[in-house]
Amino acid sequence: MNGIEMKKYGILLIGCGHIGTQHIEGIYYRDNINVYAVVDTNLEKAKLTAKKYNAKHFGTDYHEFISSPEVDIVIIATYTSTHLLILKDSLANGKHVLCEKPIAGNLEDGIEFRDLVKNTKQKVLVALVLRHNTSYNTMKKLIDDGEIGELKIVRVSHSHHSTDWERDKALLADCSPVVDCGVHYFDVMQWFTGSKIVEVSGFGNKTEADAPRNNYTFSTVKLDNGCIGFFEAGWGNTIATLNVKEFIGTKGRITLTMRDNRVSDREEGDLISIYYHEGREYRTLNVDSEYKNMYGQIETLIDMIENDSPGSPTMDEVFEAFYVTIKADEAINNSTVIKL
Q: Among 97, 202, 210, 326, which is least packed by CB within 10 angstroms?
């Protein structure tokens, strides 16, 4: 690199569960990454993760490592209820942060999270992975280029059949499906339209007697440009896995079928299908896209650190999507329509 040594960023991963291991798996081998420590309340899980991904240290208490000068970036991959506390400790120790979504489980904590980020010199990126997904960026450009005319309807179903109900119950105890996953898709709706969500409503239900809250939620939204959308999410033993991503405009529609859901030709990547009403024609695109581009998020955070870039999404965009999820959850629980 013309005699300039590449900066190596020391990583502290907090949370070695499903999403935490996905984060570290996508970055540990990169030339500019050094995994300093991994932490989990389950010591054996932390030890295994450290061994697998070549971390220098492991343990059950992040306070043992967070003040180390060898740590530059903290990845927060814990339950939602802990995000604000760990953010505070990270910023107090001068660390940059990549935090899993959602930022909080309630509005008060979400406001405090946002204000901390906006008033610190440290860089904080919230992990809305679709912003770093090649397929979603491709669809965004198609819509911006007018391929389907004006975007009028967004249809999103993102539910899964539970194979580990105890794990899913723990997630539900933390926050509802609309808060946990809705931040991604409400952000996409606003990102794709350049408009704001101004109204939310919806309904929910329990399919499991021991679910700590509704394990199925269906949210409807209106945006200030006239576009409407829905977001369906649910986890349960009797709920089928369903993945629908459809964007309907005045001239046609765009449908995304992810690689794993293709009937054939999965080696080609994600399938984007564009239907044009005029001529009744279809166009298909094969996109080599990584669904959860973890290194792409770290690259974005590093660019924020090194070049003072605003990041994607910005903290304001993150909070706007989060706010919609909180109000959608409120609308579902109270069977009402809420104007934002």
A: 210
